[in-house]
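QA checklist item 7 of 12: single-chain prediction sanity check.
[x] sequence parsed
[x] length recorded as 145
[x] structure emitted
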Amino acid sequence: MAFHEHTVATPISSEFLETFNNPNPERDYIIQIRIPEFTCLCPKTGQPDFATLELKYVPADSCIELKSLKQYIWSYRDQGVFHEAVTNTILTDLVSALSPRFARLGAQFNVRGGIYMTVTAEHRGPGWGATDSIEGLGEASDDVP
């Protein structure tokens, strides 16, 4: 069985990502966003891959604007990318746009060939340490990445 390499046709632009000023920058609080309809293409077969993305972050000066996040996520629909690469690229772009105190992106990919895959990437801002009330944010769990 021959596989065909599918490459990214056009680079994904993080320019889609817009932010707004954090209304409470003096406080650590958690923003959780669930994106249940992420799609991209397998770079080996060209078949569609589906995932649920779970983003948790502690904002510093900026918060993500949701419509721009949706458009950015949609831009991956026709892109051939490995699960590990796309998860880390999305987190890198979010960190570049937001400069959060903490961010974690979990990508739970649907079963393919009898195999489930979850990729979790994490960012901790310089000098950030969780306060007691959100200490568990820095720990991965079986329920939520």
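[x] summary fact logged: The two ends are 35 Å apart (CA to CA).
[ ] second reviewer sign-off
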